[in-house]
Batch of 3 targets.
Target 1
Amino acid sequence: MKRVSVIVPVYNSIDCLERCVQSICAQTYSALEILLVDDGSTDGTDRLCERLALQDNRIAVYHKPNGGASSARNLGIQMASGEYIGFVDSDDYIEPYVYEEMMKALDGSDWEVAQISRDEVDEEGRRLPDVCVPPEQARFCGTETFLKELLLHQGDCSFCTKLVKRELFADHQFPEGVLNEDFRLLVELLQEIRGIIILPRQGYHVVCRKESTTRKKTKDSFSRVFLDIVDNADRVQELVNRAYPGLRPYALRFNLYQRLDYLLHVPISQMTKENEFYGNVKRYLRSHVADTLGNPYLTKKQKGYLLLLTAAPRTVRKAHARRMERRGQGGA
C-alpha cells in the first residue's frame, strides 16, 4: 500500500487535539503516518502531542518555535515519507473512510489530487449551512473549471480536504507570514495538474469555534487576511490574463468581491489618506464602476454595496456603524 502522510499543525489546541488525532488514527486506510507539528504551544499541547504518540506508533511529533500554520505545514512536508500528503487542522476531525476513498480515487490513475467534501459544524457538533455544496457523485473537475469555481466562491480551496501527490510540493511550499495561504498555493499547483477529482461524501468536519472572550475584538481589530485576499485576487487576475482569457469576467468579479470584503471589514479609523492600501482599493473600484454595473456574476446586492462604498466609503461605513449601535441598544 502506498503511504499517506497526514500533517497536523498544532498550536494551543489542548481542548480539541485528541479528538482530531483519534479520528485520523481510526482511518480504514492503514498505511498512514501522522505528523504532529507543534508550533510553539504554550498551554501544554506540546506534552499532549507526546502522550498521543505513545498510543500509536504511526504518530511522530516535531516541535518548533512559533511561526504560523504555514511554517508548521512546511516542516511537516519536509519530514513526511509518504507518496501522498494530506492535512487536518487540529480543531477539525474526519470520518474513518476519508483517506481510503481518496486513495481509491487516485491509485492507478494519473490524477494528482483528490478532494473529499466537507461540512461545517459548531462546537457542539450541530450542522451549519454548507459553504461548499458537494457534488451528487464523484466528478473530475479540470483545472480551468476548478479555477472558475474558485473565482465564483463555489469551490473549496482548503488543503485539508485534499490528498496531494508529494512530488507536487517539490518546488512549492505554503507562503509564510500571510493568510489566505491555501488559495495562493492551490492556484500555483493548478498550473501543474490536469484537475481534481471531487468526492461527494462530506467526510471532513470543519469546526467553527466561538471566539475566546480573552481575544475579544475591538472596533479597531483587523485581520491581515483582508489584505491578503486582495493581493491574491490581483495574482489570480494576472494568471487569468496570461493563461485563461475566457475566465476574465470571473476574475474581475472576484477582484471586485474581494475588495468589497476588505471595505466592509477595514476599521473606520484606518480609512485615511495615509493608508496606501485603502487608497489603492478605492482607486481600483472607482476605475471599475462600469465593470461593477455590467458584470453578470455579481448579485444586485453586491453591486449596490460596491457602488455605495465606491462613492463614499467612510460615510457609508459610519452610517452602518450608527445603525448597528441603535439596533444593539434596542435589543434588535
Target 2
Amino acid sequence: MKKIFAMILACLMLFTLQTAALGENNSRIPLAGGWSRAESPALTPEIREIAETAMQDIAGAEYTPVAYIGSQVVAGTNYCLLFKYVTTDSDPISSYALVTIYKDLEGNADVLDIFDCEAENGSPDLLGGWKPADDPTVTDAARTALEKALKDTDAGALSPVALLATQLVSGTNYALLCEVTSSALSPEGSYMIVHVYEDLSGNAEITESYAFLPSNG
C-alpha cells in the first residue's frame, strides 16, 4: 500500500512539473484565490442550467454535469464543475473533465478552461461493472475506505470531494474525486480521481489515480 501511495505522490509531482510548463494561466485548476468550495457537490437546477448553457456549443464530445465543486465572485461568477464526457469520434473515449464556467451579470455562460483526465467515467455500458453514484455526496463508507487506505501515509494529502462510482467485486471499489491538499506535492486547488479498493476484511488500498491536465481541445 505504501508503494502504491508513493507512486501516487510521484504522479502528483509529475503533474506539477507538466502543468507549470504550460504557463501560469493554464497551470492548474483555479480553485485558489477567492474561490469558495461548494457546501455540497449535488447539482441544483440553477447549476445544471448554467452547465447546459455553457457546454451547448462545445464540439467533439457530449458533456453531462456530475458534481458542483466551487464558485468565485468576479464581475459575474465563475463556477467549477465536474463533467462526464463521451467523445463523438469513431473511437469514443469516456472520461471526466473539470470545467471552469464564467456566468456574466446578464446571465450569459461561457467555458473558460477544461481539464481532462483518463479515468473511466462509470457508465453502465463500460466493462467492469462500475455503477455511477446516484448522489455525488461522499458516503461514510467511501470516506472511511479512503482514510484506511491512507492510514500509514500522509492522510492529509487527499481530501474526498465527490463520490463518482462504485464497483462490487470481492469487496468494493470506489471512484472518488479528491482535492490534493498537500501544497508540497501539487499546487493548491488541484484535483485527482482516485480508485480505492476495500476487501471483505475491511482492508483498503489505493489502486489507481488520475490527474487532471488542461485540454488540448
Target 3
Amino acid sequence: MKLAFFDAKPYDKPSFDRYGKENGFEIKYFETKLNEDTVELAAGYDAVCVFVNDTVNAAVIDRLCEFGVGIVALRCAGFNNVDMKYAFGRIHVLRVPAYSPYAVAEHTVAMLLTSIRRIHKAYIRTRDFNFSLAGMTGFDLHGKTVGVIGTGRIGRVFIDICRGFGMKVLAYDKYHAEGLDNGDTVKYVELDELFGGSDIISLHCPLTEETYHVIDESAISKCKRGVVILNTSRGALVDAEALLAGIKSRKIGAACLDVYEEEADFFFEDFSGHILEDDTLARLISMPNVIVTSHQAFLTEDALSNIAQTTVQNIVDFVRLGQCENEVCYRGGRAEDCKSGKCF
C-alpha cells in the first residue's frame, strides 16, 4: 500500500511509521497541504492521508480518481473539508471518529481554568518578579452552569469533568445521548434556553450547515452578560466578527479558542517575526480576556498513537475486507458513517 501523507508534521511521523511498517505501508510524507495546486503529488499512490486544513473539493477528487487513488484517509474526526456529496460514488472517505475524547475535553477545561483564574497572566507576572494580585480575581466553577453544544464522545467527557467541579449542565444535541439527561444536574434543552441560562458555553459539535455560526450576533444577544465561550471543535461554529464585537461590548466575558474560522492560512505554521494579515485574529489575540491555541487540543501522545493506529487500520480493513466501519457516506442529503458495508 502506497500512501501519500499530506500536511505532515514531525509529531505525525513516529506513530505512522510504526503502524505503517507493521502493515507493509510505504508512506511518503509531504509537508505541503493537499489542494488543487498540490494534488499532482498524489500520482502513483493508492491512498492519500489528509488533515483538517487539506482541501478535498470536486477538482481534487477528480484528479485523485484520474490517478487511481481509491481512498481518502482522514486522520481526524471532522470531514467538513471534504466535498462529501461529490465524493459519493467516486472515492472512499475514511475517518477517525474518536482518537482521544479525553485529550480534547481536558484541553478545553485547561483553557477555561487558565482564563478564569488568570494563570496565563500570573505566569508572565511572576517571571518578572511581580507578585501583585491586582486584576487577578477569578470565579469558582462550582455551582456555575455550563452549556454544552454537542454531546458526542468529547462532549460527554467534558460534561463528566464539569460535573466533577460541581457544575450544572445544559446540553443541546440534535440526537440525545441515552441516559445523559438526569433531569437535575444535566438537562437537554433547546438552544435559546442554553444561551440564556449558561455562564459558560462550550462547543463540541461537528461543522454542518445547521451548526455553521451557531454562535453569531443573535446567539450572543441571548447570552448572559459576561458569558465565557469555549471552542475546541471547528472554527466556523463561531462568527469571529460577532465574537469580537461581543468582547468589545463586554457582553462576552472571555473566549478560549483552539480553532478559528480562517485558521487554514495560519495554524500549524510559525509566523513569529511576520505581520499577521488577518485583522480579526490579530485583534482577538490582542484582547486580554481571549486565549488562542493553534488547534492543539488533540495533541497528546495517546491521541497521536490512536490516530495513526485507526487511520492505518481503516485502510487495511477496506483493502482486505472491502469495507470499513469508519467510512463516511453521503446519504439522504447528509454525510454519515457507513455501518452497512460498501458505499458504492
